[in-house]
Design a protein that fits this description.
It is a single chain. This protein is α/β, with parallel strands linked by helices. The chain has 15 helices and 15 strands. The strands form three sheets. Strands 10-7-6-15-14-13-12-11 form an eight-stranded parallel beta sheet. A five-stranded mixed beta sheet has the order 1-5-3-4-2, covered by helices on one side. A two-stranded antiparallel ribbon has the order 8-9. Helix 6 crosses helix 9. The radius of gyration is 23 Å and the shape is elongated. 47% of the residues are buried. The structure holds acetamide. It catalyses: Hydrolysis of terminal non-reducing N-acetyl-D-hexosamine residues in N-acetyl-beta-D-hexosaminides. Its EC number is 3.2.1.52. Keywords: Glycosidase, Hydrolase. One of its GO terms (molecular function) is beta-N-acetylhexosaminidase activity.
Length: 423
């Protein structure tokens, strides 16, 4: 009944009644940092752990086992160090209370990264004190105090927050606030109210690089984790191709053409983050990222291994396995009806093993999810399947379906909106 299922479970015949004061905890440096071992017998419950996160996960397992614990030994540790969920709070803003609730829900599944997609064409959701218009044009946003609360709440549950400031495409909301960042000084930009890929990108001026480096300075002050995501996906080259000033900059910089501008801007951000001892993460589409950057491979399942072969760290996020915003089955309406992600396709995602593959991540893009209840309905039950993939214990699918019931009941009892179970 445990989700994610422990990776090594040796159950004997008897059972032990659970009580909190029967639990004896001891550190075991022989176990991985997030690993734990539960020894359950009539003498009590010994919880050994490699580190505090391991002890936390051991207790999550005990809680799921219920009031009568099987006698035996459970030795458990995750396959991946990055077990992530991405929430897009740019397309539709999600209130802080919901972010905290989502942290609780993912921590129960032993997931340990919440990646917040904070900016896009349709909104800029993070207060930047140096550039107040960014949030003035976008309406709802998180203040510095909100972020500090979210980061601390997450840390208590062994969840790291990875912030994403997307660039140099998906920036129309930033251009609406500061048009001088764009390629056409005569243009007035609006925070976009459509979905799709805006053709607008950042210009190639040093002032624009400095603007975003200042933004990243505030981001690094707010988010203590080692990773900062800078987007990089779906960046169109049209404006750099047709704007005389961009062409002039391309020549000055010695770039081979407009197609190389995205990588140039990403590399400038990577240099800046490296000085602050932070690692840059970006959405990987082709092998042009800065040395040492961590890639998030979203296009297909093959690109994860390709990025790993380049010697990069990789978080696998192939859309046909991990985009939980896709409907679970064909349905009419404005959802992408040609892209469906079934519970079984999520469960059967078999991440390759290669040096550099550090994790997997599930995505919740919110174009078609205006409310927290919509997000929950898309997340569950598929996030339960994803949690087993991330932990590395996904096995027999019918066994998973049998174990699902108490979890769906528990989620419903917590007031979570659970989507249809379409096996
Ligand atoms: C993406 O789905 N554009 C990362």
């Amino acid at each position: 009944m445990i989700i994610p299922r422990p990776r090594d479970l040796a159950v004997l015949g008897g059972s032990v009644a659970f009580s909190e004061d029967l639990v004896r905890h001891r550190p075991d440096p022989g176990l991985p940092e997030e690993g734990y071992r539960l020894t359950l017998n009539e003498g009590g419950i010994e919880l050994a752990s490699g580190g505090p996160a391991g002890a936390y996960y051991g207790r999550q397992t005990l809680r799921q086992l219920g009031e009568r614990l099987p006698e035996g030994v459970i030795e458990d540790a995750p396959r991946f160090g990055w077990r992530g969920v991405m929430l897009d709070v740019a397309r539709h803003f999600m209130p802080k209370a919901f972010i905290l609730r989502l942290i609780d829900l993912i921590a129960e599944l032993k997931l340990n990264v919440l990646h917040l997609h904070l900016t896009d064409d349709q909104g800029w959701r993070l207060e930047i004190r140096r550039y107040p218009r960014l949030t003035e044009v976008s309406g709802d946003h998180y203040t510095h105090e909100d972020i500090r609360e979210i980061v601390a709440y997450a840390a208590d549950r062994f969840v790291r927050i990875v912030p994403e400031i997307g660039l140099p495409g998906h920036v129309q909301a930033a251009l609406a606030a500061y048009p001088e960042l764009g390629n056409d000084p005569s243009e007035t930009y609006e925070v976009w109210t459509k979905w799709g890929i805006s053709e607008h990108t950042l210009n190639l001026e040093e002032e624009t690089i400095a603007f975003f480096q200042h933004v990243l300075d505030e981001v690094c002050d707010l988010f203590p984790g080692e990773y900062v995501h800078v987007g990089g996906d779906e960046c169109r080259n049209d404006e750099w191709e047709r704007t005389p000033r961009a062409q002039e900059r391309i020549r000055e910089l010695g770039l081979p053409g407009a197609h190389a501008c995205r990588a140039w801007i990403t590399a400038r951000m990577a240099e800046h983050l490296a000085k602050k001892d932070r690692k840059l993460v970006y959405w990987y589409e082709k092998p042009d990222g800065p040395p040492g950057a961590t890639t998030m491979t979203w296009l297909d399942e093959e690109s994860g291994e390709l990025a790993a072969l380049e010697g990069r760290d990789v978080v696998l996020a192939p859309h046909l396995r991990t985009y939980l915003d896709y409907p679970p089955e064909q349905e009419a309406g404005p959802f992408f009806p040609d892209r469906v992600l079934s519970l079984s396709n999520t469960y059967h995602f078999a991440p390759p093993s290669a040096p550099g593959i550090i994790g997997v991540q599930a995505q919740l893009w919110t174009e078609y999810m205006p409310t927290p209840a919509d997000v929950e309905r898309q997340a569950f039950p598929r996030l339960l399947a994803f949690a087993e993939v991330a932990w590395g214990s996904a096995g027999d699918y019918s066994d998973f379906l049998r174990r699902l019931d108490p979890h769906l009941t528990r989620l419903a009892a917590q007031g979570v909106s659970v989507g249809p179970l379409i096996p």
